[in-house]
Design goal:
Helix content: 10-25%
Distance between the termini: 18 Å
Largest sheet: 6 strands, antiparallel
Strand content: 25-35%
Radius of gyration: 21 Å
Structural class: alpha+beta
Oligomer: single chain
Number of strands: 19
Length: about 350
C-alpha cells in the first residue's frame, strides 16, 4: 500500500519568515532559495503566495497569504485514504526548505552521475491541498528546482526537448469549492475531482495525466498562464509597450501601444472581459499560445475615428516579452507581479503530471 503525504502551505499569519517573506515558500523565486525558517507542523492548513518579480506591497502579500485555514477537506481526504489502507501524513510547510523535505521522499536511488532524480516506482504519493493555483505552482517550482540538472550536467537519458525529467505526479485537493465555478482554476479546467473522497480515489486508483509545463528565466514555472497589463482605479485599461516574440514570429516590436498580452499553457487567461485572446490553449500539445491586444485607430466612411482592438496570436515553443518602458503589471497563475526586464518562457512537454481518474 502507498504512503501518502497531504501537503498544505502555511500562512504568513502562522509563521513569521514563512509565506510572503524572503523564504518565498509560496512560489516566488527570490534571491535566496533557502528559507529562513525550519518549522514543520501537522494537521494545519493555510495558504500563501509570492512571486518572482516585485509584489505590490507588504499589504498585498499579507492579503494573498493570510486566509482562513480550511481543515475539513484535508481531514476528509486523509480519512478516505486511511479507510483504503494508506499510511497518511499531513504536513504544513511554511518555507521552501520544508516543501523540499517533503519532496525528498520522492527521490529515486542514487545515480552514477550524482544527480538527484525522481523515483518512477515510488510508493509515496503526494497530495497538494491548494487554495490557489499559485500554491500548486509553489510546489512544482520546488520540484523543478530539485530535479532539473544544470546544463553542464545534462545526462544522456534526458529527452532532447526537455531540460528536466518527468516530474513525480501530484494529486490536487482544491480547498475552495467556489473556484470550481466562474473562477475556473486549473483543477476545474483540467476536470480534476474536487471532492476529498474522489481525490483520494484518484491518488490510489488513478493514472498519471502528463501535462506541459512552462519554465521561465526568472527561476519559476507557469502551469496555467500569465496575463500582462492592468487597469486604473476606474477600470480603464492602461497602455504599455513591449517587444513580444514567439519563436521567430514578432507579434509587436515595442513601438506600438498594447492593452494586454496573454501567455497561455491552459485557458485561465483565454479571455479579457468580452475579448477572446487565446483560441485553443492546450496543456498537452507541447506549445504555448500567445496573444497581444493592440488598440488600432480606424476611420469610418464619414471620417470619424474609432478605436478597434486588434488581437494578434502565435503558437510556438518559447515566448519572450521585453518591456520598453516602466513596469508592466501582470498575473502569473493568479500571482501578482511587475515585469521590469525581459522575461522568457519555454515549454517543457509533458514535464509534470496529475493523478486523475
Amino acid at each position: 500500500m502507498y504512503d501518502v503525504v497531504l501537503l498544505t502551505l502555511g500562512s504568513e499569519r502562522d509563521a513569521s519568515g514563512g509565506c510572503g517573506s524572503g523564504g518565498a515558500c509560496c512560489g516566488g523565486a527570490t534571491g535566496a532559495d533557502a528559507a529562513p525558517t525550519n518549522q514543520t507542523d501537522t494537521d494545519q492548513v493555510g495558504t500563501g503566495q509570492t512571486d518572482t518579480d516585485q509584489v505590490s506591497g507588504r499589504q498585498a502579500e499579507t492579503e494573498q497569504c493570510a486566509t482562513e485555514r480550511p481543515r475539513v477537506p484535508v481531514l476528509a481526504c486523509a480519512d478516505a485514504l486511511i479507510a483504503r489502507g494508506a499510511r497518511v501524513e499531513t504536513v504544513t510547510a511554511r518555507s521552501d526548505a520544508e516543501i523540499d523535505a517533503v519532496l525528498a521522499r520522492l527521490d529515486g536511488p542514487a545515480r552514477p552521475d550524482g544527480l538527484t532524480w525522481p523515483d518512477p516506482d515510488s510508493k509515496t504519493r503526494l497530495v497538494v491541498a491548494t487554495a490557489s493555483d499559485g500554491q500548486l505552482r509553489a510546489v512544482l517550482r520546488r520540484l523543478v528546482k530539485r530535479y532539473a540538472p544544470a546544463p553542464s550536467k545534462r545526462p544522456d537519458d534526458l529527452a532532447g526537448d526537455r531540460t528536466l525529467p518527468d516530474l513525480p505526479p501530484v494529486a490536487v485537493l482544491p480547498l475552495d469549492p467556489a473556484r470550481g465555478g466562474p473562477h475556473r482554476d486549473l483543477a476545474a479546467q483540467l476536470g480534476l475531482p474536487r471532492d476529498p473522497v474522489a481525490v483520494a480515489t484518484a491518488v490510489l486508483d488513478g493514472t498519471p495525466r502528463r501535462l506541459d509545463l512552462l519554465r521561465n528565466d526568472g527561476g519559476s514555472v507557469t502551469l496555467d498562464g500569465a496575463l500582462l497589463g492592468a487597469a486604473d482605479d476606474a477600470g480603464r485599461p492602461l497602455h504599455w509597450r513591449a517587444r513580444v516574440e514567439v519563436d521567430d514570429t514578432i507579434l509587436t516590436d515595442g513601438a506600438e501601444l498594447l492593452l494586454a498580452c496573454a501567455v497561455g499553457n491552459a485557458g485561465g487567461y483565454a479571455t479579457l472581459d468580452d475579448v477572446a485572446l487565446l483560441t485553443a490553449p492546450d496543456p498537452t500539445d507541447g506549445q504555448v499560445e500567445v496573444a497581444v491586444a493592440v488598440p488600432v485607430v480606424v476611420r469610418s466612411a464619414w471620417g470619424r475615428k474609432r478605436v478597434r482592438l486588434e488581437v494578434r496570436r502565435a503558437r510556438g515553443r518559447a515566448v519572450s516579452v521585453l518591456p520598453r518602458e516602466g513596469k508592466v503589471p501582470y498575473l502569473d497563475d493568479g500571482v501578482e507581479g511587475q515585469l521590469t526586464r525581459k522575461r522568457s518562457w519555454w515549454i517543457e512537454p509533458g514535464a509534470w503530471a496529475v493523478w486523475s481518474i
